[in-house]
Amino acid sequence: MRPTRNGAAAIRLATEDATKIAAQSFEASTTFAQGKAKFKILQAGDVREFEVIVSPTGDQFAVTDTKGNILLQPQPYPPTGPVTVLGTTFELTEGALPNDKFTANLVPSEGDNGNLRKMINIQTAKRMNDNESTIIDLYHNLNTDVGLKMATMTRLTDVARLEKEAAQSRIASISGVNLDEEAANMMKFQQAYMASSRIIQASNDTFNTILALR
């Protein structure tokens, strides 16, 4: 399996229309939370502004709108997975303290561009190689590896060519045969043979002519 072998060849431009980019992100606030729980919006639905409130005992949570109307009856805390309320899905991890409150505001506002900032930060975020390298680091390392392998193969090719030439020279010195000289001699012999055949042919023609005169 080589999943990245043709990865670069498959890269395509998805869109040239900037308006189709979801540059804005959803804001989830933990201003009124004292614990270590994390609150994250996964998908926006019909409800745009709401609050997630942990019970005074810390073992339940409920969802209300900004006016205090209950949108989701008290549920066991921490939840076992993502929670969906009127089409809006959020994630709430463990670690909240009693009476902690998490607020969500999914109303569009100009100048946020949270998603776009996250996309830009991908190039410098260390998320590869166990969070030790960035995508740019991997790209540079790949270029370096390819360059080194190419240079190594070029050197090996040159070495192999020189070894072949040296081996041919050793064979010629041991056998006493020079291939270039033998090729030249062969051409001379061929020319002499052709000249001799023409002389013989001329002699035969002359002899036949004399016989014909008699």
From TrEMBL:
The protein, known as: Flagellar hook-associated protein 1
InterPro entries assigned: Flg_bb/hook_C_dom, FlgK
Organism (species): Vibrio cholerae
Keyword list, A-Z: Bacterial flagellum, Cell projection, Cilium, Flagellum, Secreted
Superkingdom as given in the UniProt entry: Bacteria
Pfam families: Flg_bbr_C
Domain spans labelled Flagellar basal-body/hook protein C-terminal: 173-213
PANTHER family reported for this sequence: FLAGELLAR HOOK-ASSOCIATED PROTEIN 1 (PTHR30033)
Biological processes, Gene Ontology terms: bacterial-type flagellum assembly
Family from the record: Belongs to the flagella basal body rod proteins family.
Gene Ontology cellular-component annotations: bacterial-type flagellum hook; extracellular region
One term of GO molecular function: structural molecule activity
Subcellular location: Bacterial flagellum; Secreted
